[in-house]
């Protein structure tokens, strides 16, 4: 019997064209879904007849109760090699093998700078005004050279963001709970004495931390209140690191000059979500990992994962 493979959240309808699926074409029928399933009931109904599921990043949770409703599922493939929304113990109980793929950190680094520059220079309002017959120049761009860039996190992504900031001539400082002076010296940044000092002295603050119990809600109303009214926040990491209600209040009240956000508490963002209409906000629909190179890797390695599973020797197992 031929197996059926579902590809979730193929918003651009490219999953079957950016990679070569022919190695599994004799054994597997591939169906891609371009619309997001908003509820577990919708997801379970759509996936009940599939043996393999390919899911993007951590957008779709696979808790124990959902896995129990998918009796045919035998292989679950997630892009990336870490996933916090799959119940691995439940997957094992139900006989589901979970595999991953590699993922490049370059696209989120590049998007971070696209957002920071777009926010600093008012690219969206100026472009909109120009194309709609509006005023010729209405914003006063913020300079980067000589300004302070504060990074929350100096790991694989944060360190690359830091080096670009240094190339712009910015004063780059970093902080995280475990960051050492040796690591900061290695990257070439300063080490902020505390989170509070970083927030209070930085012109731009960019978040590059993994979500954990220690970082969840790391920036709340009190922390955002430490930022200067001329400073901006960029978050391409995880929405839950920043209290969303506190951020909305800061944008509405003008506590900070602006924010550039790529991650949200609910994704895809509902049409009536307040983030869609918040002032002083440059927002993108979680594009950090969305690049041709990454998609070629995700789906190309998904095919490899399927091949290996069919051969009885799964690769890149998660859990």
Q: What is the CATH topology descriptor of the largest domain?
A: Rossmann fold
Q: Any idea what the CATH architecture of the largest domain is? A: 3-Layer(aba) Sandwich
Q: Report low-confidence residues grouped into runs of 5 or more.
A: none
Strand order of the largest sheet: 8-7-6-9-10-11-12
SSE-based structural type: alpha/beta
Net shape: globular
- Main sheet overview: 7 strands, parallel
Give the mean pLDDT: 97
Describe the structure using short key phrases:
Rossmann fold, 319 residues, 12 strands, 5-stranded parallel beta sheet, single chain, 15% strand, alpha/beta
Briefly say what this structure is:
This protein is of the alpha/beta class and 319 residues long.
Care to describe what's here?
This protein has 319 residues and is an alpha/beta fold. It has two domains: 121 residues, NAD(P)-binding Rossmann-like Domain (Rossmann fold), CATH 3.40.50; 178 residues, NAD(P)-binding Rossmann-like Domain (Rossmann fold). The protein is 33% helix and 15% strand. The protein has a seven-stranded parallel β-sheet with strand order 8-7-6-9-10-11-12, with helices on both faces. Helix 4 crosses helix 6.
Protein topology:
Blueprint: E1 3-7, E2 28-32, H1 40-47, E3 52-55, H2 64-68, E4 75-78, H3 88-93, E5 97-100, H4 106-120, H5 123-131, E6 148-152, H6 156-167, E7 171-175, H7 181-187, E8 190-191, H8 195-201, E9 204-207, H9 221-226, E10 232-235, H10 244-253, E11 258-261, E12 281-283, H11 292-310
Parallel strand pairs: 1-2, 1-3, 3-4, 4-5, 6-7, 6-9, 7-8, 9-10, 10-11, 11-12
Helix pairs in contact: 4-6
